[in-house]
Amino acid sequence: MRYDTEHLCLLAAYNNDTGVEQDLRELQHYATLLRCKLVERHDHLQDMKDVLRAAQLLAGSAAEGFVVLLENGERRKIKSPQYVCVACRLVT
Predict the structure, then answer these.
(1) Which of 37, 63, 71, 83 has the least CB density, counted as fewest CB within 10 Å?
(2) From CA 54, how far away is CA 33, in angstroms rounded?
(3) Shared domain check, 50 and 67
(4) What pLDDT is attached to residue 17?
């Protein structure tokens, strides 16, 4: 997958002493300090069906997919079909 630019994107940060995940305000602060982008949030996607539907509609450089934060605190990548197709061609 070719990207329009090369950059780092901050997804999350944790307090080293407490292990607590930092809130959005703190992430914005760290992204500014590190001179990197902050991941785009999609709070309107309320459940996995919404995420899967949205992934189907992704196109162009945004076609990679989403990182989903689950209720148990784990994160999962949801890839768009277009991204999976391109990735498969690169591997085979």
Answers:
(1) 71
(2) 31
(3) yes
(4) 97
* Domain match, 90 and 52 both: yes
Distance from C-alpha of 48 to C-alpha of 55, rounded to nearest angstrom? 10
DSSP string, 23-37: -HHHHHHHHHHHT-E
Neighbours of 33 (CB within 10 A): 8
Judge if 8 and 32 occupy the same domain.
yes
Tokens of 25: 């305000």
Q: Which domain holds residue 51?
A: 42-92
Give CA–CA dist 69/66, Å, rounded: 10
Q: How far apart are CA 41 and CA 44, in angstroms?
A: 9
- H/E stretch holding 39: none
